[in-house]
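Changelog excerpt

This revision adds worked examples to the README so contributors can see how folded entries look when concatenated. The first example is reproduced verbatim below.
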Amino acid sequence: MLMRTDPFREIDRLAEQFFGTAARPAMMHLDAYRDGDHFYAAFDLPGVDPDSIDCTVERNVLTVRAERRRPSGDGVELVAAERPMGTFTRQLFLGDTLDTDKLEAGYEHGVLTLRIPVAERAKPRRVTITANGDGRRQINA
């Protein structure tokens, strides 16, 4: 049996993963950074109703789920449909150095921002070094 190769099949598959499809929208874009004693994650969710956003943490896995719906109802006529609609989901694996019990979330101007403090046990601390009279050093933390 002769198998034909389609050079564009792989490109189409990668484009669907990156840009999404009508049935499965692309993932939400994210910026993540640390500023001092806090870790921040900012998700782009323009046009999403804040009530449709669900944010959960389970075993250091942060899951953000949001839904963008098309206008519907009597008299609504869809003229163009280029914006991705549907349910968006993104997961982040958080390190043990973050205190997920004190996670804070805010939604403003289409951006969901999560603020997670760095755990006390992960912050740098000063180590005191003492010297014994016999020349050996003892370290107290």
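The second example, added in the same revision:
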Amino acid sequence: MAGIVVHKGNAAAMDRVNVDTDQIIPKQFLKRIERSGFGQFLFFDWRFNADGTDNSNFELNQPHNKNATILVANENFGCGSSREHAPWAIQDYGFQVVISPSFADIFYNNCVKNGILPIKLTESEVEELLTKADKDVYELTVDLKEQTVSDDQGFSAKFTIDPYWKEMLMNGWDEVSVTLNYEENISEYEKQRA
């Protein structure tokens, strides 16, 4: 996985509460076993009309949200079932950072394990970001090392993250990579046990 130290990108606003994993990636698309290819189905029931055409009223279909890499959502994002396909779809679509006042615990953990940075900010901070990103192209800078989110209009907020997940995200590691960092120690231990 690619590491995240500083990420600058356009933010898309999704001012909805309780967005569940069934909406993030509907169940009919869970048949694939690889991690790629899910982005085309992200928010499928909201993004597309019944005839398959784009739903022009949906947030991500707005012209100013094309190529956004930061998703700003309202509270309890990622609730519902624990499907790991949800962060896969978010990442495959192009989002690297998701900002919300709160996340479902399993969804949050699935994000960090798959290289997506989930950021919890206060409700008022998220409301400000949602307002700024609602109608126009809006760029944010996320600095994981300093644990800040900022724009060029005076907004700046600090966030917290577990040091373990921070190190993994900054280095682009998954849990297998962390284990392989101890490969010499593991080999030495195996020699002693032989």
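Reviewer comment on example two: The chain has eight helices and seven strands. The helical segments are 21-24, 44-47, 85-93, 105-113, 123-133, 163-171, 175-180, 183-193.
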